[in-house]
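BUG: 3D viewer hangs when loading the predicted structure for this chain

Environment: internal workstation, default settings.
Expected: structure renders.
Actual: progress bar stalls at 90%.

Input used:
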Amino acid sequence: MKVVAGELPGTLILEPRVFRDERGSFLETWSERRYAEAGIPGPFVQDNVSVSRRGVLRGLHFQDPHPQAKLVTVLAGEVWDVAVDLRRDSPGFGRWMGLTLDAESGRQFFIPAGFAHGFQVLSDEAVVSYRCSEYYHPEAEGTLAWDDPDLAIDWPVSDPVLSGKDRRGRRLQEIADGRSSRR
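Structure tokens produced before the viewer hung:
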């Protein structure tokens, strides 16, 4: 497995070995020992899977308190995956990074606790799995505005399909100022 440091402190891009033959393909998406050696701390306590159609944007979601580290893997299709550093003591605070994840390559994205996370679907449909280091706490859930001009995230689709919650996300400045991070 190839491991590359991401643009933001603590983020990692993982490229597991994909075995292909006439039957199809196989890849290992998690091994506690191997991933710990790659710098991904455990434990992970919850796995989530979402299925979305082209143009859907999910995010940017975070929990405060109870932040979650996430290991993101696309099981089918292709997405533009984005993480925003919300750790106030981090040199990366308020910065974002994005990368394409797809089922064909098996590439994974590790996002440390304290980040907002979201993705936009680039294929007709995408199945996204994310392994989380903390349980989901609905009372701690927050949404950062996907279109916050202070972040200026370069989303590939300018008119995304959004949930009501994601349309009402807060701007980074509101979260940084401590004005209600939940919505």
